[in-house]
């Protein structure tokens, strides 16, 4: 087991094309860190640099206490699971899993014993003599993970390992990966664009965009206190409602902003740096928008555009007069009396409203 | 027209087409086989009667074995073909891999130069190759005291043919189709560049290598002009040249015997094809996704 330290890592493909623009990160020993971000944000490149499959243009990579920039991939003490499984088609499952050990010159008996042990952990001992083509997608992914386990690496690297599985299998494998981490207690770095995987698996999430770390923290921290508009919009499904607004008043104890058509909304944020009439973005998560009671004076009138029944909850897409964006709100599953075209009144609770300045940076929430 | 009738007409059409094609491609061989099996050669020029053996028997085949050095020629052909296949596969794999997977300056230019040689007819190379081979033979005799290669050696027959543009192109294409993840996985597993090539890329490319082996075999087996020029010793001749020399020309014994010889010389290639054709099925099943 080992920690991983990235010190101002940069990656250029050509002089002008920089895909990683100076990433610094400390990953603790035994931690499960998830790199998440949209396609092309540099998260996979970062992982491949840690693996030793891409050169590091600038900066320092430490695995444990060793600078690993120029160490060959096989000598870094890492094992990698690929999105496409990358199993050797001409070898049996056991040969696939033992290939690295065989190359390292480990005695046959020990290879067999380690392959068997990994097979037991992943419950694939009955598949050891099969070739990859005789396996299902889920079984192939298990073998790919098994191939990583037998090497007893200091760090596991996962490059979108569940993307090719169907939804049910993905859920099952997610749980198994989580268990595996608890069992092995090895450092794991996991790349995904699926925010659900990120939220459920990670000790800490690193949100990437355009080759830069946007935010780093525990899943809940990122969900509740996104540092900027990108993180706010990226995490959460359906995504956070983001509305253009202007500041009416603001101080360290809160802010009042105005939506188009003069609708005033309060947000519990430290708005000390905001001035009246500043352009800001108001953010509220779909589950925080509430239906107003008759007596509520501050309620905002809205119209129902679409209703989606999802069993445990209902998603309502609503339109507020004067606001261009269609907003989504999450209601309990039994709120089925809403229908298309209904005129409703909603409330944005002050404590749940977030505010972002013109540069997209969040105002600190007061909680 | 009912659905069933349409299906019947469709199938009949397809089978008729396939059968016509099969007849078109196999009829020279079938004619040769029929003539070789006809102990009485009186009908061999009558169409279509000649396609049915007259007085069938193995007499002409027996005469081929008795009257010419068939087994010697066969052995020579097999040896030359084997060396050509091994050499061609080795050169094509070793040249195709860097062209497909490694980045180095001049890569594109080298590939174009290799492909460019396909534009030239092979006969263009006969004189330069002959001169080079003669000198190589002289030098090897002078330096080593024996003839390692040169005129009238087996290596002289196959060495000029092993570095072919077609094989290199075929293997380059095959290696390019292998997913990068597989190579990366091998690299993370600790494989060095040559281990990646021999333990991952080559086994995965088995179908392409089998195809290359078959094409090379057919070419090497049928090679006539170059072999005829290089080999002067009768005992070293392969089937193509040896049989032509012995069975044709002004003193030719009989057409039936030529046909028996042809049938016998085709059989080894057919056996090789039967053994290797299963490798044509994709080798990548289950590797990725």
Automatic annotation (TrEMBL), chain A:
Could you tell me the keywords of this UniProt record?
ATP-binding, Cell membrane, Membrane, Nucleotide-binding, Transport
* Organism whose genome encodes this protein: Chitiniphilus eburneus
The entry's cellular-component GO terms read: ATP-binding cassette (ABC) transporter complex, substrate-binding subunit-containing; maltose transport complex
Q: Which PROSITE patterns match?
A: ABC_TRANSPORTER_1, ABC_TRANSPORTER_2
Organism superkingdom: Bacteria
> Which named protein is this?
sn-glycerol-3-phosphate ABC transporter ATP-binding protein UgpC
GO MF: ABC-type maltose transporter activity; ATP binding; ATP hydrolysis activity
Give every ABC transporter domain span.
4-235
Gene name tied to this protein: ugpC
Kindly give the SMART domains that the UniProt entry links to this protein: AAA
Q: Does the keyword Repressor apply?
A: no
Q: Give one Pfam family.
A: TOBE_2
């Amino acid at each position: 087991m080992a920690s991983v330290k990235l010190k101002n890592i940069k990656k250029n493909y050509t002089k002008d094309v920089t895909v990683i623009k100076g990433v610094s990160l400390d990953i603790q020993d035994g931690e499960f860190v998830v790199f998440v971000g949209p396609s092309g944000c540099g998260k996979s490149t970062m992982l491949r640099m840690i693996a030793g499959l891409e050169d590091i243009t600038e900066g320092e990579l430490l695995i444990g206490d060793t600078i690993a920039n120029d160490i060959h991939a096989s000598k870094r003490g890492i094992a990698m699971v690929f999105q496409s499984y990358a199993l050797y088609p001409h070898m049996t499952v056991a040969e696939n899993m033992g290939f690295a050990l065989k190359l390292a010159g480990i005695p046959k008996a020990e290879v067999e014993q380690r392959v068997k042990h990994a097979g037991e952990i992943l419950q694939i001992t009955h598949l050891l003599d099969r070739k990859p083509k005789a396996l299902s997608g889920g079984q192939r992914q298990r073998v790919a993970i098994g191939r990583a386990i037998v090497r007893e690496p200091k760090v596991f690297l996962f490059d979108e390992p569940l993307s090719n599985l169907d939804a049910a299998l993905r859920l099952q494998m997610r749980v198994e990966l989580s268990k595996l981490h608890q069992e092995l207690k090895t450092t794991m770095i996991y790349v995904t664009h699926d925010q659900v995987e990120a939220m459920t698996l990670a000790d800490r999430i690193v949100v990437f965009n355009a080759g830069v770390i946007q935010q780093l923290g525990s899943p809940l921290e990122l969900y509740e206190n996104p540092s900027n508009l990108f993180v706010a919009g990226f995490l959460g499904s359906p995504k956070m409602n983001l509305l253009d607004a202007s500041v009416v008043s603001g101080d360290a104890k809160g802010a009042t902003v105005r939506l188009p058509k003069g609708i005033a909304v309060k947000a519990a944020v430290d708005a000390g740096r905001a001035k009246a009439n500043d352009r800001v973005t108001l953010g509220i998560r779909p589950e925080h928008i509430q239906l107003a009671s008759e007596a509520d004076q501050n309620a905002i009138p809205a119209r129902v555009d679409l209703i989606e029944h999802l069993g445990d909850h209902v998603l309502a897409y609503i339109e507020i007069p004067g606001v261009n964006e269609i907003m989504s709100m999450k209601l309990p599953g039994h709120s089925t009396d809403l229908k298309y075209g209904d005129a409703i009144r909603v409330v944005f609770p002050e404590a749940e409203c977030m505010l972002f300045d013109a540069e997209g940076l969040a105002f600190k929430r007061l909680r | 027209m009912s659905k069933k009738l349409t299906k019947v007409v469709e199938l009949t059409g397809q089978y008729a087409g396939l059968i016509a094609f099969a007849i078109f491609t196999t009829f020279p061989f079938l004619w040769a086989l029929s003539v070789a099996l006809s102990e009485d050669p009186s009908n061999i020029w009558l169409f279509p009667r000649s396609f049915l053996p007259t007085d069938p028997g193995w007499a002409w085949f027996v005469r081929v074995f008795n009257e010419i050095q068939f087994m010697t020629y066969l052995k020579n052909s097999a040896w030359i073909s084997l060396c050509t296949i091994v050499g061609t596969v080795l050169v094509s794999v070793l040249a195709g891999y860097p062209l497909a997977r490694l980045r180095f300056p001049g890569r594109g230019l080298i590939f174009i130069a290799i492909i460019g040689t396909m534009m030239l007819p092979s006969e263009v190379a006969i004189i330069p190759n002959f001169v080079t081979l003669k000198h190589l033979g002289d030098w090897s005799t002078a330096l080593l005291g024996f003839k390692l290669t040169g005129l009238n050696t087996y290596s002289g027959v196959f060495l000029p043919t092993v570095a072919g543009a077609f094989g290199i192109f075929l293997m380059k294409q095959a290696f390019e189709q292998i997913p990068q993840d597989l190579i990366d996985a091998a690299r993370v597993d600790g494989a060095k560049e040559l281990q990646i090539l021999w333990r991952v890329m080559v086994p995965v490319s088995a179908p392409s290598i089998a195809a290359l082996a078959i094409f090379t075999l057919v070419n090497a087996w049928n090679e006539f002009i170059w072999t005829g020029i290089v080999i002067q010793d009768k005992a070293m001749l392969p089937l193509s040249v040896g049989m032509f020399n012995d069975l044709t020309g002004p003193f030719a014994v009989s057409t039936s015997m030529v046909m028996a010889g042809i049938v016998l010389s085709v059989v080894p290639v057919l056996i090789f094809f039967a053994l290797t054709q299963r490798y044509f099925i994709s080798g990548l099943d289950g590797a990725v996704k």
